Amino acid sequence: MPEPSSFDYAIIRLVPHEERGEFINVGVILYCRAQAYLDTRIAFDPKKLYALDPDADVESVRHQLDLIPQICKGGKNLGALSGLSQGERFFWLVSPRNTIVQMSPMHTGICTNPVAELDHLLETMVK
After folding, report:
1. Domain extents for the chain?
2. How far is it, in rounded angstroms, from Cα 127 to Cα 123?
3. Residue 101: what are its φ and ψ, rounded to 5°?
């Protein structure tokens, strides 16, 4: 059995109108340095977004959400992010921003299997 490892995660939120304080949880990003693991799970339901903002630009939101797995994976097509390590990409992703796609505060946990933990977090925090 693998040794328990610490991990950090953040919930991906959609915040259509920041001044109203409303948001929808749509995904999770998890980083486990000890196991060199950085990945995300996203479960976006446009109906929930439309409930908070009937005029929301769903295609723009989808585009922004689609970039998150690409950034987690890394690669040469990421422009300035291409040279960043896994940890640097994680911390860049979870840094505060004032856009419709925002992250929760970062949380920490312990796991032996980061893939299973990410799936569990998606089920309990998003779905």
Report:
1. 5-125
2. 5
3. -95, 115
Q: What is the pLDDT of residues 13-69, one digit of tens each?
A: 999 998 998 999 999 999 999 999 999 999 999 999 999 999 999 999 999 999 999
User: Which one, of 74, 66, 55, lies nearest residue 17 by Cα?
Assistant: 55
C-alpha atoms less than 13 angstroms from C-alpha of 63 in its C-beta half-sphere: 4
Q: Which residues have C-beta within 8 Å of that of residue 71, sequence separation ≥ 6?
A: 78, 81, 89, 92, 93
- The amino acid present at 80, given as its one-letter code, is A
d(CA 35, CA 10): 18
**Length of the chain in residues, anyone?**
127
CA 7 to centroid of chain Cα atoms:
14
Q: Which helix (H) or strand (E) holds 91?
A: helix 86-93
DSSP E strands in the chain: the ranges are 5-14, 24-32, 37-42, 101-103, 107-111
Nearest CA to 51 among 28, 27, 26, 22? 22
